[in-house]
Design goal:
Length: 105
């Protein structure tokens, strides 16, 4: 099965889980709207993401941007679950340092 097909199926599963637990999809989409994020912050986020090697970035995008669980991302990428967890965790730590200037005082 092509990677994009697997990602689409897992996105649909994630959407069903949100509906099951009562997440308001319209509110969630509004919160995720890239136009509502400060352009400078968005630039810094994208810069931090682009610093990652492709194999790490893919896991981060699947989990953090597309809403897949670590387990789902591991299955899509056909890599060990621990590798996905490590990649996502390491990126979050790098992101904290990169975006420290954006923290409220």
């Amino acid at each position: 099965m092509a990677l994009s097909n697997r990602v689409q199926l897992l996105r649909e599963d994630a959407r069903r889980r949100k509906e099951f637990v009562g997440v308001d999809e319209e509110q969630w989409q509004a919160e995720q709207d890239p136009h509502t994020v400060d352009p400078g912050l968005r630039h810094d986020l994208m810069h931090a993401l682009n610093l990652l090697p492709l194999h790490e970035r893919t896991a981060v995008v699947l989990c953090c941007q597309n809403g897949l669980s670590h387990d789902e991302a591991a299955r899509v990428l056909e890599i060990p679950l621990g590798t996905v967890k490590t990649n996502v965790s390491a990126w979050r730590e790098k992101l904290k340092r990169t975006l420290a200037a954006w923290a409220p005082n």
